[in-house]
Specification:
Elements (H helix, E strand, L loop, with lengths): L22 H13 L2 H16 L7 H7 L3 H17 L6 H21 L5 H18 L7 H9 L3 H20 L7 H13 L1 H14 L3 H14 L6 H4 L3 H9 L6 H12 L7 H18 L6 H7 L2 H26 L5 H15 L4 H11 L2
């Protein structure tokens, strides 16, 4: 049990930046915060808060991350780093910004190449810190970031898998969460930069999808692609082999079918008129695969009731795909005689899914039937 820390407790030496950092002492204070009680816990909280707010605290992050044996202490160090990036980045000397940037990139490369399951949270926090840096640095002070991350991804599958996560996080920050977090001008600049350089990212995604036998890497790539689909230039979706690759290569693979169906739903939700032929192809190819995966005589209500989470998610994702496609492009299918059978198949699946006893799925179906 950690000892109670009084006002003259040696733990206060952590706040003296003229002294060498005592890692064991810091670990003890962090343990007090998480496992102590009453006065000792309050003292630990006070010291750690003061330390985090010290303008030079970030200079101790590398020592903490390298020598601490306590994961909570490492998370605390990352909080210090995140704090300086969010609040003081613009006033730091340029060479210090470059130093932090290189340090974080090096740490991510090292951690992602040797990461174990227990380090996933740590790596995830490092990734978010890099994205916070990118929001300040890219593209002005780091114009080669996209080519750097794409180039590095081709050197190692584990690094590539983590880089997909970074690209997904960056996409979310720029396109999904930018409102209220950055100025409109800054958000637009980042969006334009991402669109302009997307060809390199798309080629990397294609390369992985076509060549990799590493299932977790492929899954991470599909998850990242899903985040891209609501903003990338439409040519990448409709003027490449993307749709056929998703339908034929990944839709009928149990591990990939849910994320693939989400991708196809995102594509189905695009409302433009110049790609009618591709939308027809999307619908007919998906239904052909679907009939093999889920024959039309399946009792979907029963299958859902007895299914595992993954199987239940598939039925919900299927309802979203059919509902989205038929709402946006149903008339396109209706007015072509040779597509009537496909339309009836789609509606048949919607009827079967409507019988599922699950409120969210019923709402999805109801929205379509009321459409």
């Amino acid at each position: 049990m950690p000892t109670i820390m009084t006002t003259d407790h040696p733990a206060r030496q952590l706040l003296d930046f003229n002294q060498k950092l005592d890692i064991n002492l810091l670990d003890n204070v962090v343990n007090c915060l998480y496992h102590g009680e009453g006065p000792q816990q309050r003292m630990a909280q006070e010291i750690l808060t003061h330390l985090k707010e010290h303008p030079d605290a970030w200079t101790r992050v590398d020592t903490i991350l390298e020598f601490s044996q306590n994961m909570n202490t490492k998370y605390y160090a990352l909080q210090i780093l995140e704090n300086v990036i969010k609040t003081r980045w613009k006033i730091l000397p340029r060479n210090q910004c470059e130093g932090i940037k290189k340090y974080v990139v090096g740490l991510i490369i090292k951690t992602s190449s040797e990461t174990l399951e227990k380090d996933k949270v740590y790596l995830g926090k490092l990734n978010m810190i890099l994205v916070q840096i990118l929001k300040h640095e890219w593209p002005k002070n780091w114009p080669t970031f996209i080519s750097d991350i794409v180039g590095a991804s081709r050197t190692s599958e584990s690094l590539c898998q983590n880089n997909m996560v970074i690209l997904k996080l960056l996409s979310e920050e720029v396109f999904d969460f930018s409102s209220g977090q950055m100025t409109q001008v800054k958000a637009k600049h980042l969006k334009d930069s991402m669109c302009n350089e997307f060809s390199q990212i798309f080629q990397l995604c294609q390369f992985v999808m076509e060549n990799s036998q590493n299932a977790p890497l492929v899954h991470a790539t599909l998850e990242t692609l899903l985040r891209f689909l609501n903003w990338i230039p439409l040519g990448y979706i409709f003027e490449t082999k993307l749709i056929t690759s998703l339908v034929y290569k990944f839709l009928n693979v149990p591990m990939f079918r849910n994320v693939t169906l989400k991708c196809l739903t995102e594509i189905a939700g695009v409302n433009v008129s110049q790609y009618d032929e591709q939308f027809v192809s999307l619908f007919t190819l998906t239904l052909i695969q679907l009939k093999q995966m889920l024959p039309a005589n399946t009792n979907i209500r029963l299958a859902y009731a007895n299914g595992k989470d993954d199987e239940q998610n598939f039925i919900q994702n299927l309802s979203l795909f059919l509902c989205t496609f038929l709402k946006e492009h149903g008339t396109l299918i209706e007015r072509t005689m040779e597509l009537r059978e496909g339309l009836l198949d789609g509606l048949h699946y919607m009827i079967l899914i409507s019988e599922v006893e699950e409120i969210e799925i019923f709402k999805i179906c109801l929205e379509y039937w009321n459409h």
